[in-house]
Amino acid sequence: MVLSKTFSESDVSIHSTFASRYVRTSLPRFKIPENSIPKEAAYQIINDELMLDGNPRLNLASFVTTWMEPECDKLIMDSINKNYVDMDEYPVTTELQNRCVNMIAHLFNAPLGESETAVGVGTVGSSEAIMLAGLAFKRKWQNKMKAQGKPFDKPNIVTGANVQVCWEKFARYFEVDLKEVKLRDGYYVMDPEKAVEMVDENTICVAAILGSTLNGEFEDVKLLNDLLEKKNKETGWDTPIHVDAASGGFIAPFIYPELEWDFRLPLVKSINVSGHKYGLVYAGIGWVIWRTKDDLPDELIFHINYLGADQPTFTLNFSKGSSQVIAQYYQLIRLGHEGYRNVMENCRENMIVLKEGLERTGRFNIVSKDNGVPLVAFSLKDNQRHDEFEVSDFLRRFGWIVPAYTMPPDAQHVTVLRVVIREDFSRTLAERLVIDIQKVLHELDTLPAKINAKYSDSGNEEVVKVNNGNLVTKKSDIETQREITTIWKKFVLERKKMNGVC
């Protein structure tokens, strides 16, 4: 079974027009071909198909870095054939990874002595980092419960309903109950008070997010720490905190240095961050840092010697490319505090430009915050005739990829669009996007209103809402489809008559 959908379900052959000068034989789509083809033909066939992908620079849905300097691109290509796991063969690469871990640990104010090294590891991304941190919390909790002679088979973790899917994966894959604090209208992050109320003796940790995917907002880790400290004293528990700083970990230290969210708070035991987001590296690198050695159980660390010298490893995968580790080190020494600060401040300024441009249209509510990850999350003030999903769809005509999505429970009635401001998103692009959004809104205003289906408790469609707001009993799905088709055919014919040239 293939988990992702393929473009075509049939095994129709693929063929490139330009590659025909090298080969005329078509290729099977889902089977390895019997014969070899020239390298030029293979390149052209693949390149032709990739042309239909979106432009990464215009993919405003992604937090992931889409541009790096040519010098770093060269370093990446020069090291792309190195397997990071071969530490004995590539000792310098290992040294660069260790330097990155220590730099990031100091950035997050880890309590390290003068000659003390940090505890952390590079990962494929924040998803793997979260899995490793979660496993450390689970094992420490299990060891503690065993020592007390108590049951240790029902661990849970407390998060907000706004967490990334990687937290749900961790809970399901490693058999941990996920207790989510529901959101509410106007408050789209985890409420620290409600989170602490849900903590019990089986809670392995509370996970806070520094930069929610939904609206970029930083959760109040300081308040969470203070409330949890109080509860721990009252109950005798020692429930810790993990900070998912995937998006905000390379932002807050540079433009919000006074914000307390990291190892300055005593209950924060581990932090993950995505190097491939605002760490400014291409996709494929994350980091997890532990407060002290005691926070990472020794039994989770494996020691191998069949690649050379003794090598400690704590990862879910084994082989991994070295390129992104080297790229991260390049960015850290190339930019330094000053460079990262300049990039983040520029992103924030461009975010304000976009936000103010959207506000001037008078058509949107802004649901993101000025302080946080530089993004703009916004919703239509009136989505009765046309909704955010239509705006997202129409923007693709201009090349923009802007996601539309509904909020998690209990704010699922709110639909938003989100634009992530990355380093390569300039002020000119921000202004251009506002202009294109205005064009989309103008075009949607000329179109017939969408037809909304209402549902009964059983999930079956009962009535449809037409333009005038009257409710009409739905007879069948095919009749609804015919009605929509008739409306659009009439509309298109009228436009052709208006735009026709004699």
UniProtKB/TrEMBL annotation:
Its cofactor is pyridoxal 5'-phosphate. InterPro entries: Glutamate_decarboxylase, PyrdxlP-dep_de-COase, PyrdxlP-dep_Trfase, PyrdxlP-dep_Trfase_major. It holds the Pfam family Pyridoxal_deC. The keyword Transcription does not apply. The gene is LOC107415793. It catalyses: L-glutamate + H(+) = 4-aminobutanoate + CO2. It comes from Ziziphus jujuba. One of its GO terms (cellular component) is cytosol. One of its GO terms (biological process) is L-glutamate catabolic process. CDD domains: DOPA_deC_like. It is an enzyme of class 4 (lyase). Belongs to the group II decarboxylase family. The keyword Protease does not apply. GO terms for molecular function: calmodulin binding; glutamate decarboxylase activity; pyridoxal phosphate binding. This is Glutamate decarboxylase. Keywords: Calmodulin-binding, Decarboxylase, Lyase, Pyridoxal phosphate. Its EC number is 4.1.1.15. The modification N6-(pyridoxal phosphate)lysine is found at K277.
